[in-house]
Structure formats: C-alpha cells, structure tokens
Amino acid sequence: MAWAEECQEFGPTSFRVAPERAKAETMGNMSVGTCKLCKQVKRFAKAHIIPRSFFLGARGGSKHWSEARQGDAMPVAIWQNGVWDEAILCTDCDNSFSPWDDYGFKVLGNPPGNDLFPKDDSDVQPFVLKDIDYGRLKLFVLSVLWRASVSSKPFFARIQLGKHEATIADMIQKKNPGSCDQFPVVIGRLVCQQFPNAVFPPRNQRSPEGVNFNLLFLPSIKIMVKVDRRPLPQALEPIILKPQRENLAMPFPLHVGEILALQDGAETFRTRASRR
C-alpha cells in the first residue's frame, strides 16, 4: 500500500503531548437543536464520544492532548480531555451514557501490562476479563460506536454505520445489549507499542472473508465490532464478548499502517511546534 493511501485510510492520529503554549478548548454557549437519540429539540450537551475518563487517565503529566491531522489546513488541534461534539446529544441523553462509560473505564481503563514490552512471543498473552457485566460492557461499546457514527468531527469520519445506526440507537434507548452474536464484539490489548497512550481514530475494516467490522481504539485497547449480516468468521467465535464468567482480551500488535500514521502524526506535531 502506498504512503498516500495509508494517510487517506487512517486519517487523523491523536497522541499524548504537553505543548507549552497550547490553547485549551472552550465550551461557549451551547446551542439548541434536535438530539440525534431522542429526536427532541433541546439544548445540546458537550458530549464526549470516547469518555473523557480514558483521556484523563492516560495523559499523565500532560495538560492537553494533541490531535495531528494529515492534509488539514489546521494540522494540529488541542484538546484538554478528548474529542467532544456539541451538536449530537441533549443533556438528558448524554447523561444516560454515564453508567456505561463509567463501567467501560472500570474494566478497560487500565488493562494489565499496557506499559510493558514483551520480552519475546511467549510473553504476549491475552488477559482475562473476569466476572464482567456483559450488558453494561456491550452497551458501552455500542454507545461509543453510535456516538462516533453520528458525530461530524473529523476524528470519527471513518465510522458510518448506515442502516445499522438506527438499530443500535434503538438498542441503546431500550438498554438492550442484544445477544452475543448481534453486533458481536472482540476486545484486544495492544502490545509492543512505542506510544502506549496513543488513541487512533476509529475506522472500518474487512476480514479476509469480506465481513465488515468497525474498529474502536482506547489507550492500549482495540475493539472490533461486526456490522454485517454475514456470519462471523469462525476463528473469532471463541473470543467474542459473551455473558459468561470469563472473557479473553486477545493481544493485538499495531497494524503497519497504524504505526506509519502515528509516526506521521508525530512529525506533523513537531513541525507545527517548531514554527512557534
């Protein structure tokens, strides 16, 4: 795959930085409009697509996050606590996600071994998610995916659920996580990272069988969600999230394109910072 195609496929890359003269986000006066979930005209909330707790927990001593954008007139955007959208959810609907967001961070906010480099292949092992609440964790994943789909922010441009968007919205409103084979979820721990707190933009991907998945990224975590009526690839069936006592989070190395995108994003930021 050519370099230009890599940039186009992976889009903007967000990673942890501590710029000295960063300009923090400002909330301003929130506007009024039609909430994309309840469909009522209300005052919009400052809605975080990926919960702010993941960004606050991973930025360390830095005061801001920097989003490096390829091919953008403003190649570096500064955020205090992650990307948010002020035109998708009313306050009531945004607050309804809080229990799932809190639970998602409790389970996935500090995956074991996320700051360690494996010594060899034998050290690259899955970790076990024990006694999880399947419903809350599944609804957390689906709610992040749905928020990414309805957002117009460039960071989430690669997620478009199409006909599945309304189905997932209905599941969210009914607090219905669905069965394990309805939008099945695979959770993985990213390993062998030079920048363990990097957060990549979510994107779509096809399996070798041609089945469509959407990928969500959290610090040191990669989540796959099948958004396709075709059967789940057989190799993934044993590791999908299920309502059982133990689930596995598999070790995932970064794709070569993700590594290249991160390197390019870092160079974009260095270039921008040198001009100040």
Order of helices and strands: HEEEEHEEEHHEHHEEEEEH
Rounded Rg: 18 Å
Strand content: 15-25%
Q: Biggest sheet, strands in spatial order?
A: 8-13-9-12-11-10
* Structural domain tally: 1
**What general outline do the C-alpha atoms trace?**
globular
Provide mean pLDDT, rounded.
76
Which class best fits the helix and strand makeup?
alpha+beta
Helix content: 25-40%
Terminal Cα span:
34 Å
Number of distinct helices: 7
Question: What keyword list fits this structure?
Answer:
22% strand; disordered N terminus; 6-stranded mixed sheet; alpha+beta; 3-stranded antiparallel sheet; 7 helices; 28% helix; 276 residues
Structural overview:
This protein has 276 residues and is of the alpha+beta class. It has one domain. Helix content is 28%, strand content 22%. The chain contains seven helices and 13 strands. It has helices spanning 3-10, 52-58, 91-96, 98-108, 134-150, 164-173, 256-274, and strands spanning 13-17, 32-34, 41-43, 47-48, 64-68, 76-79, 84-85, 127-130, 185-191, 203-206, 212-218, 221-226, 246-253. A hairpin with a 6-residue loop joins strand 2 (32-34) and strand 3. It starts with a helix and ends with a helix. The relative contact order is 0.18.
